[in-house]
Input
Amino acid sequence: MSFNHRRVVVERGRRSGLPIVVAVHSTVLGQAIGGCRMVSYPDWRDGLDDALRLSAAMTDKAALAGLPHGGGKTVIALPPDKALSPVERRDALHDAGDVINGLQGIYATGPDVGTGPADMVTIGARTPYVFCRPDASGDSSPHTAAGVLAALRAVAAERFGSPDLAGRSFAVLGLGRVGAHVLRLLAEAGAGNLLAADVNPARRAVADEHGATWTTPDDCLTAEVDVLVPAALGGVLTRDVVPQLACSAIAGPANNQLDHPQTADLLHERGILWAPDVVVSGGGIVHATAAELHHETEAQIAARIEGIGDTLAKVLRAARETSSTPAVAAARLAEFLAGERAASMLAAC
Ligand code: PHE
Output
C-alpha cells in the first residue's frame, strides 16, 4: 500500500497511556476534517489502520459534499473490552485534544463512533480545532440522517423507478445516534416493513418506538428487504457476506462499509446496487462546517443536505452509463470535483 497521507501522528497519551492516532490525509482543498473515534481494537495497530483508511475516505467525502476541506481522522484505540471510567475518558479526550492542537489547525475533529457532542467540549478544553460542541453546531447526527434519507430516495428512484419510500422495506443495521434518526425518518416516510438490529440489546427500545421488528445483526444483514441500511461500524460487506445478501440495494451512513475495494465488484455482479458511503454520509460535515464556518441558515443547510440525493443520483447514473460500479463512479467524481475546486482556487490567486 502506498503512503499518501500528508501527516500521521501516533502518540502515547500523556495522561491516559492510550495510543492516540491522528491521520491527516489531505489538506489540498483546505483544513482536513473528520471525527474522533474511540473504540476497542484487538491491537492498537488495527486502530492505526482504521485511521489511515477512514481519513482517506473523509477526503473523498468532503470533495463529494462540495466542501473546501480535506480528510482526517482521530482514533483513540482502546484495548479489547475496555470500559473507561469518567476520569479515564476525560484524560483520553484531553490527550487527543493535545495531539490535535499540536497540528496547529491543519486538522479539526468532530464526533464519531464512541464520542458525542459533550466529548467535543472536553477535547475543546485543549484545542480550538473541534466541531459540534453543544454551544456551536451541536449534534450532527440528525443532519447525517437527513442526508441518508435523501440518498435513500435517490437509490429508490434508480432501482425501483420512484423516489417514494412509502411501502418499501428496510433493514437498519445499527441503532446508534445516526441509525436511530434514520429509523425514525423512515417510519415517518411511511416505510412498509422495518427491521432493525444493534449489538447493544438496550437499543431494542428504539426499534420498538418506531414500530420496527427487532432482529439479530446477522439476520438484519441478510434480510430479504428492498434496502439494507448499514449504520454501525465499517467492514460489514465482505466476500463471505455478499453471497448471503437478500436485499436489492444498500445505502447507509456507516463509514468504510466494504472490507476491500473489490467487494464493490462482487455486489455489482450480484445485481445489488451499493450506494458509496462517502456520498451517503456527508450530511454531518455539511451541517457542521456550514453552521460553524459559513454561518448559513438552517434552510440553506437543509437544501445542501438534500443535494446529497442529487450527487448520489449523478453517481448511480454515471455508473450505469459507463457499466462501472458506483464505487468507481464516486471515486471519479470526487477526483473531478477536487480538481475543479483546486483549479478555481488557483484562478482566484
Ligand atoms: N463522524 C463525522 C463524519 O464521519 C465526523 C464529523 C462530523 C467531523 C462533524 C466534523 C464535523 O463525517
About this structure: The chain has twelve helices and twelve strands. The radius of gyration is 19 Å. The CA atoms of residues 148 and 171 lie 14 Å apart. The domain at 141-282+311-333 is CATH 3.40.50.720 (Rossmann fold).
